[in-house]
């Protein structure tokens, strides 16, 4: 046996022993993902004022940032997301048109947000301008921004790599006509959110092979008895979406709701009220699977919830 | 040695491709954090400090002076008169067109009184915390009578640019700019988008065309007080009931 051959063999042997171990360690680390989310924060930079109201002293970006920092110090793979209506509701917005809101989100290292109807309130051009302070993308798949200031600023989706996981995140926005004055949304064209969500989720699943697909929605949780598209309808009429992080209706959900999609798979919907009063946290555990199961219908088990 | 590393590399790559590349979420645990007072992130706090200081000084900024205390009341709603006067005056400027009257829904007036003396920006925010927008709706005298009957049935709303009396839950003696209401004449009315979109059961308005420039009613109140101050005047609501319950 010449020396070179020996070395090769022993290195390979050592490698074959060691490599899977390293990789397994990496796999284990990658199998957990913490998703943090807010919606309808409505320019609530300071805590709610001490006016005797039920929310007095609660919320505020500095307190939220402290909670987020603590979670980040304990977990490697965190996604921080917002479902829109960042703007409007306190004098901060009237005075600064969204600058402190976006700066605070950048400082908290938000990964992505979608656009709510109130984010148009100082005009689409203003929203586009304020994004100079953002370090995160705005995801909307069903607004056609061609010929507007948002044309090259909004993305339909973004894929986040967290360890070995590929997480696809996209956004859907609400019908603007009748809700937002036309002079504020300008040439923005609203497209059917169900059609666009199916298109985008299909691309993220089948082409990009994302392990999880999250939809940031500003459609609203539920409009009982109405045909108006909501997160409940979106969940039921689409496939490949695992989680809908909602907004608009300011719904305080006790915990995420499970809905079956058109494939029979579980979709979770969650929303955390408004004003930055609550931060939602979903801890997902992933396991490896085969290609057939990956595209097939699936269910998720929900552990006991915690209130902090 | 170089070749050895190449082998090693190819093998490592080969192993990678055999590793599972599909993952599936099987479990989820939910935690709901109430954001309570307590630990604050100092860097975010510092980042916001200049804005917060400016906000505080803005809210306490005095923009005008009120000669006598205004009250929210159903029949002689002086606080509502101030608001509708501001809406009528400022909507003419912003929309740059004639506006006949302004109405304010009673429930949208959020403070029982405005004390005489200094008016601050904060006073206006308390009075009008909502982000209601100013809209103009043009309607016939018949349609306006229908709207005022609805308003009378709810106990009456303050008006500027006209007057009416309430009898048996109907609006009577309606006068617009000192002339009796004419059924076939067109009138332009300043309203909140909330009301024009059918709020407070005003469904009769939803079929009418609206003009909306994204102008907040709160900004109209602030602009009106500031314009009085700039002209060297105090806010003073002239005596005289615009809405009488007979």
Summarize this structure briefly.
Chain A has 308 residues and is an alpha/beta fold.
Q: Main attributes?
A:
heterodimer, A: 308 residues, alpha/beta, six-stranded mixed sheet, four-stranded mixed sheet, 16 strands, 31% helix, 22% strand, globular, B: 246 residues, alpha+beta, five-stranded mixed sheet, 7 helices, 14 strands, 28% strand, elongated
Present the secondary structure layout:
The complex is a heterodimer of chains A (308) and B (246).
Chain A: H1 3-30, E1 32-38, H2 61-74, E2 78-82, H3 91-96, H4 99-107, E3 112-113, H5 124-130, E4 138-139, E5 143-144, E6 154-155, E7 157-162, E8 165-172, H6 182-185, E9 189-190, H7 193-207, E10 212-217, H8 231-236, E11 243-245, E12 257-260, E13 266-270, E14 278-288, H9 291-295, E15 301-302, E16 306-307
Parallel strand pairs in A: 1-2, 2-3, 4-6, 8-10, 10-11, 11-13
Antiparallel strand pairs in A: 1-14, 5-9, 7-8, 12-13
Chain B: H1 2-18, E1 23-34, H2 42-59, E2 62-66, E3 70-71, H3 78-95, E4 101-103, E5 113-114, E6 117-120, H4 121-127, E7 133-140, H5 141-153, E8 159-160, E9 162-167, E10 170-176, E11 179-180, E12 186-192, H6 193-196, E13 210-216, H7 217-230, E14 243-245
Parallel strand pairs in B: 4-12, 9-14
Antiparallel strand pairs in B: 2-6, 3-5, 4-8, 7-12, 7-13, 9-10, 10-11
Describe the fold and architecture.
The complex is a heterodimer of chains A (308) and B (246). By secondary structure, chain A is of the alpha/beta class. Chain A has 9 helices and 16 strands. A 6-stranded mixed sheet of chain A has the order 7-8-10-11-13-12. In chain A, helix 2 links the parallel strand 1 and strand 2 (78-82). The termini of chain A are far apart. Mean pLDDT of chain A is 89; it is low at 6-30. Chain B is elongated and about 100 Å long. In chain B, helix 3 (78-95) packs across helix 7 (217-230). Chain B has helices spanning 2-18, 42-59, 78-95, 121-127, 141-153, 193-196, 217-230, and strands at 23-34, 62-66, 70-71, 101-103, 113-114, 117-120, 133-140, 159-160, 162-167, 170-176, 179-180, 186-192, 210-216, 243-245. In chain B, the strands form 4 sheets. In chain B, strands 8-4-12-7-13 form a 5-stranded mixed sheet. Chain B has a 4-stranded mixed sheet with strand order 11-10-9-14. A two-stranded antiparallel ribbon of chain B has the order 2-6. With 246 residues, chain B is α+β, with helices and mostly antiparallel strands. In chain B, 35% of the residues are buried. The interface between A and B is large, with 91 and 54 residues.
